[in-house]
Amino acid sequence: MLSIGKLGARTGVKVPTIRYYEQIGLLAEADRSAGNQRLYDEKAVERLTFIRHARELGFPLDAIRELLSLSDQPDIPCGAADMIARRQLDAVRERMLRLKALQTELERMVAQCAHGTISDCRVIEVLGNHDLCLHPDHGH
Amino acid sequence: MLSIGKLGARTGVKVPTIRYYEQIGLLAEADRSAGNQRLYDEKAVERLTFIRHARELGFPLDAIRELLSLSDQPDIPCGAADMIARRQLDAVRERMLRLKALQTELERMVAQCAHGTISDCRVIEVLGNHDLCLHPDHGH
DNA sequence: TTACTTGCTCTAGCAACTGGAGCTTCAAGA
DNA sequence: TCTTGAAGCTCCAGTTGCTAGAGCAAGTAA
């Protein structure tokens, strides 16, 4: 049996975060020692590893909750899990596009900042100017 | 002079968000009408447009605050603004890398989900399995 | 003038944690 | 066995960047 600290070390999740996950019901309430300290087994390691990876991959906790509940009943079709992953993939692709635009913009800024004064520095100008805006979709 | 609603419509920023920006000092306190309603001029439109673009490009409000304070005193060297842009650029490059890895992972997941049941669905498996993990850096 | 929309302030809430205060329990060395 | 220090406990507050609601006042069009 593992203490919460060991569990955190093995999974790369901080101790308060583990307690937080328990609090919001993402992890079941842990068994306790005689002195009221949480004790974990290998199943908890797996579950928390799963959560950590999913978080790293950008899944919101709600999606993870869904995924976990799915994995608890492995006989139903995996379409739901697939859909969650697809949704996530779409979001990621969009984020990538926006970040790419941002990167280009910042690179241009840095290149154009010719060590003059702010008044001729494009860092301000580019962000204030609508015509240079890569996302002219006003109504988002 | 514009009401807060018009300002929001023109800049694509929601009304409560504008009030929030004023509250945290990102926008100066607006002039008021006889009936205590906020009134804005074209300068406010520009400033808020600047903020909106910067937010879209992923700048945190602190960086925007810095940028704005720089643009308020245009005679100082732009080294500071340049530095902020560089810092932001580094952060963006890192986010891009992580997102790229994530995208690959999700694409693999979706491709491998062969419409079976959860028990043979790789979405769950991939997230639980350490060996398939693209970020084996436990620390951080 | 009467509606109706928009505005006002204030408070509370969201995600997803993070950190601190003040206390108890555990593990290891002397 | 005692002691010391790390690690655990609970509870509460704070973070970022908003968003939503209550309960009003002000502005506007018919």
Automatic annotation (TrEMBL), chains A, B:
Keywords: DNA-binding, Repressor, Transcription, Transcription regulation
Residues of the HTH merR-type domain: 1-70
InterPro entries named in the record: DNA-bd_dom_put_sf, MerR-type_HTH_dom, MerR_fam, Tscrpt_reg_MerR_DNA-bd
Lineage: superkingdom: Bacteria
MF terms in GO: DNA binding; DNA-binding transcription factor activity
Signal sequence extent: none
SMART domains for the chain: HTH_MERR (SM00422)
PANTHER family (UniProt xref): MERR-FAMILY TRANSCRIPTIONAL REGULATOR, REDOX-CYCLING DRUG-SENSING TRANSCRIPTIONAL ACTIVATOR SOXR
Identification of the protein by name: DNA-binding transcriptional MerR regulator
Species this protein is from: Rhodovulum visakhapatnamense
